[in-house]
Amino acid sequence: MSDKDFTMKNYSVKFKHREILPLYVRGLYYRKYTLRQAAESTGYSIDHLCRLRKKYALVGDSMFEHGNTRRVPKNKIDPELARRIALLYSAQYSDINFSYFCRCLEDFEDIKISLATLRKIMKEYGLVSPEAHKVKKKKSVHRPRLRRECEGDLMQVDGTPFAWFYKFGDNKRYCLSGGIDDATGKITGLYLTEYECLYGYLEVLRQTCRTYGVPREIYSDRAAIFCYTPRGPNLAQWEKLEVMHEKRTQWQRICEELHIHQILAWSPEAKGRVERMWRTIQGQLPMWLFKNNIRTVEEANRQLHRYIESFNKAYAVEAEDDEIFYIDAPANLKDILCAQFPRRADARGCITFHNTTFYAPTAPDFSRRDVLLCINESGLFAKYMGEYYPLQPTENFVRQLTYDEMPQVVVNIIHRYLFAFAKEISA
Questions:
Q1: I want to staple 357 with a disulfide (CB 3.0 to 4.6 A). Which of 5, 87, 196, 394 is the partner?
Q2: Residue 6: what pLDDT?
Q3: How far apart are CA 366 and CA 385, in angstroms?
Q4: Residue 417: helix, strand or coil by DSSP?
């Protein structure tokens, strides 16, 4: 007989003796059995049976009940509260998983329970998480990449279009640009734009630099914003890489000025940390916007820092090394984070940009000189001799702009700035 079989046999014998013990204790009290007979049948000692007989004389059959019988546990959830939680999930939160629902109960409904308790309630009412309904595709095996050891060593950036306001009935897809620190998993910045554009990533970089500092490296995909990708079936791989490094985009110029090393990913799995971040945010942010009654992109951009704080509090981890690689942002960060276009002023000192002529009323005379046209959220500026001078249109109307080769961010900013200025000068 094995040790396991011997243990199970002893347990079954002991359990049988416990079941017949009340019968023999009552028999001892009413003198139906002797102590020796009860000891042989139950397996208990005579001294212990004497103690049980005395206790039975004092309290009767209640001695055989456990001390916690009919006592309500302190941690037992109220059935009415469980019913309320189930109704809340069915009515408002059925499109989020149980983990985030547990946080929503605490943040928005003033109900604090553990995730394990919540899962029991959901199972009792037959409610299933939407994650359970997803058909998971068979994934190819990719070699895992370890986290960087130091905070600020690497930031992954990406953008994702999604219907963030669908809870309000708005199914339009807006692009959310974001960055995440590779070592800690902290979101360093989020910004919503109508389309994926340079301006969204510049705002993410601006938030990162102001909150933490300038990261040492940035990992991104090979979108046209981040690099120039040559097209052509006859180009070899090394030829494509050579052209990519020769022609610089606005983003590459900015990274160079901030001394940021750029890494380009050749697959989504290469920057898996930011890709997994999007799955979490897409499951949480629409509900967060709805519960905070945030209906527009502008209002969302003003309030997203609150969501970033809650996300980092829930998911960020400690870096393996205490050393921080972020460096202080330069004083002229606002001047660096802009789109720049080289121009040559005419004999009047005016600059032409997409069929619209501008002049700088506060600038010195730079007629027939090379200047830089800089565009950021504050407007249009001419950079000459290291100084920035605001530009104004020379005419009292704004001509129709052509957007064939114009980045979407420039279109958006030009539109906002010029049309606002046109309203002022036409009044």
A1: 394
A2: 41
A3: 10
A4: helix
Q: How far apart are CA 164 and CA 287, in angstroms?
A: 9
Q: Which of 186, 185, 161 is nearest to 171 (CA)?
A: 161
Q: Would you state the torsion angle of the CA atoms of residues 105, 107, 108, 112, taken in this order, to the nearest 10 degrees? A: 30
Burial degree of 211 (CB within 10 A; 0-12, 13-18, 19+): middle
Give the number of residues written for the chain. 427
Report which residue type is found at 371.
V
Q: What is the CA radius of gyration of the chain?
A: 35
Q: How far apart are the first and last CA of the chain?
A: 102
**Angle, to 10 degrees, between the axis of helix 272-291 and the axis of helix 297-315?**
120
Do the Cβ atoms of 22 and 64 come closer than 8 Å? yes
pLDDT at 200: 87
Q: Which helix (H) or strand (E) holds 329?
A: none
In which residue ranges of the chain is pLDDT below 70? 1-18, 133-142, 229-247, 377, 395-427
Pairing status of strand 370-376 against strand 379-384 = antiparallel
Report d(CA 100, CA 325) in Å as an integer: 32
Residues 6+ apart with CB under 8 A from 77: 113, 117, 121
Rounded to the nearest angstrom, the gap between the alpha carbon of residue 209 and the centroid of all alpha carbons in its chain is 19
Which residue, chain included where needed, has tokens 């999007």? 278
- Residue 398 CB neighbour total at 10 angstroms: 19
For residue 77, give both structure tokens.
């959830």
Tokens of 315: 């998911």
Task: Give the torsion sign (CA, 27, 32, 38, 40).
Answer: negative
What the block records as the tokens of 392 is 């104004």
What is d(CA 334, CA 151) in angstroms, rounded to the nearest whole number?
A: 24
| CA-wise closest residue to 304 among 313, 294, 314, 291 | 294
Structure tokens at 288: 């967060």
pLDDT at 31: 85
In angstroms, what CA-CA distances link 134 with 118, 163, 222?
A: 21, 19, 29
Widest Cα–Cα separation across the chain = 126
CB atoms within 10 A of CB 107: 15
Strand partners, 155: 181, 218
3 state SS of 201 = helix
Residue type, 124: E
User: What are residue 388's DSSP bridge partners?
Assistant: 383
DSSP type of residue 226? T
| pLDDT for the residue numbered 153 | 93
